[in-house]
UniProtKB/TrEMBL annotation:
Transmembrane regions listed in the UniProt entry: 6-24
Name of the protein described by the UniProt record: Thioredoxin domain-containing protein
Keyword line: Membrane, Transmembrane, Transmembrane helix
Signal peptide: none
Organism of origin: Gordonia liuliyuniae
């Protein structure tokens, strides 16, 4: 009988802990999104500072839905940047590192983008960005990513930076900061792809590029 009582008490303790954890999580509050932190931790920024709309795009190179987002909205985003109506801050996250065979493809891809940001122009970025998403679900080596960068028009400095993994640690740190801001925008949830405008989640981004025209026509209030 005693053993049954002890088991019963153990179950009660577990239930209390689970309920307590749920209540704590549901009552937890998150600070407002910090635009300065977002600006400082974007892996690549494209578009004029004077553009009427600035968006933050959060992606992970091992994320299949991010590949869908790139295929459905990538060209539309580039067009809006080129015409001067949108400025985009790209945040390359790495919470899917463990899903790749190497255990760090998301971080290495983010570092590659950072290498291009430090050494090359937006055309090289866009081409490498698309090429890495074309490999989503794969696990290219640093040397293979450097070759993709070369094919995208990145110069020798960026290629060496990528091949040597020079900025992986920095990319991880930036991903952490960006993830925190994304969590603050969405009650602690971090998911990719996500788009923020004025710190607010943009809906319908996987339903085709119509979200972008709607956002430009009706931007959220800061």
């Amino acid at each position: 009988m005693t053993s049954y009582i002890l088991i019963g008490v153990g179950v009660v303790v577990v239930v209390v802990l689970v309920v307590g954890g749920y209540l704590w999580q549901s009552n937890k509050t998150y600070p407002p999104v910090d635009d300065k932190v977002l600006a400082e931790n974007a892996a690549f920024i494209v578009g004029e500072r004077t553009a009427p709309e600035t968006i933050d795009v959060f992606e992970d190179f091992h994320c299949p839905h991010c590949k869908e987002f790139e295929e459905s909205s990538g060209a539309a985003i580039q067009a809006k940047v080129t015409e001067g109506t949108v400025r985009v801050r790209y945040h390359m996250l790495n919470f899917l590192d463990g899903e790749s065979d190497s255990g760090d493809f998301s971080s290495r891809g983010a570092a590659a983008i950072l290498c291009v940001a430090r050494n090359d122009d937006r055309d090289a970025f866009w081409k490498l960005h698309s090429a890495l998403f074309a490999n989503a679900g794969g696990d290219p080596s640093n040397a293979e990513i450097a070759k993709l960068a070369a094919d995208a028009g990145a110069g020798p400095a960026a290629q060496k930076c990528i091949a040597d993994g020079e900025l992986v640690d920095e990319a991880r740190s930036m991903a952490d900061e960006s993830s925190t801001q994304l969590a603050n925008s969405n009650d602690g949830n971090v998911a990719t792809p996500s788009v923020l405008s004025a710190g607010t989640q943009v809906d319908g981004i996987l339903d085709g590029p119509a979200w972008l025209d709607e956002l430009i026509a009706n931007p959220p209030k800061s």
